[in-house]
Design goal:
The chain is an all-alpha fold and 53 residues long. The protein starts with 8 loop residues before the first helix and ends in an 11-residue tail after the last helix. It is built from two helices and no strands. The protein is globular.
């Protein structure tokens, strides 16, 4: 998360964290849970096994 520039500063970071806590039903957050625009800017290599449901 340190590599993302956070154009909205601390407010954007806070909102993203709140969104992730509310929207995930598992005890941990994976790259799959991140919003698409953040994943795209990070250019993450997400292993395929993460996408299994």
């Amino acid at each position: 998360m340190e590599s993302y520039q956070w154009p909205g500063n601390v407010r954007e970071l806070k909102n993203i964290i709140e969104f992730l806590v509310v929207s995930t039903s598992v005890p941990f957050i994976t790259p799959r849970d991140l919003l698409e625009h953040i994943r795209d800017k990070w250019n993450l290599e997400i292993p395929q096994e993460i996408f299994r449901d």
